[in-house]
Amino acid sequence: MSIAPDMSAQGAGMPTVVLVHGAFAGSSSWNGVIADLKRRGYPVIAVANPLRGVQKDAAYVRALLDSLPGPVVMAAHSYGGLVMTEAADGAANVKALVYVASVSPEVGESVIGLLGKYPGSQLATSIAMVEIPADGGGTTMDQYILQDKFPEVFAADVDRGTAEIMAATQRPASASAQEESVTRAAWKTIPSWTMVTTEDQGIPPDLQRFLADRAGSTTVEIAASHAVAVSRPGAVADLIDSAARATMS
């Protein structure tokens, strides 16, 4: 049985849009994008990315992809780009990848390694580490953005009240999620689109541009913060729609 929502749209050639959130966010960060895409007739799933590590997260997302009938367009935000890059490789139903204020890594690259390529990220000085029990015994570390820094670093163009709620409800990422490398690169065989956020203090715009150029991605730039899916959902939906229409032509 598929968990896809209303599949009647696929009868008209509409792909299912699968959205993958990144670290320090959750599926609700896509709410405005989801509402816009559904108005356009797309079936949509915003997957609950576990944020436990690239391989674990990708296996989780890939299981969802394999359950879906018909074509799929994927969009990922931030760290979700690593998960999408790993999970979509070899998935015959995935027709397009959309990187939103995100990263499109090469095999062997990690979040930490990529963020070191260009200056501008404020994440390193904004993180709090919380020790938690690890599977199999021992402990591991979860990472949060300090709440007082969250609005400026993550969501500078989101109204303050909403940004403060996002800070309070953020989902932590394990340290391994930031350190693990991808072992596959779906953008080498699946066409990609990239939204570069020029006011981003999480992932430097120059890094986004470099990765998009390397991947041969169709690129748009927008004056927005890292939380562009919240501040500019219509623009994000427009790019996903463009990618989807290219797969249907």
Automatic annotation (TrEMBL):
Keyword Amino-acid biosynthesis: no
InterPro entries: AB_hydrolase_1, AB_hydrolase_fold, Sec-Metab_Biosynth_Hydrolase
Domain AB hydrolase-1: 17-238
Keyword Hydrolase assigned: yes
Record GO terms (molecular function): hydrolase activity
Gene3D superfamilies recorded: alpha/beta hydrolase
Organism superkingdom: Bacteria
Record keywords: Hydrolase
A Pfam short name: Abhydrolase_6
Designated name of the protein: Alpha/beta fold hydrolase
PANTHER family listed in its UniProt record: AB HYDROLASE-1 DOMAIN-CONTAINING PROTEIN-RELATED, ESTERASE_LIPASE_THIOESTERASE DOMAIN-CONTAINING PROTEIN
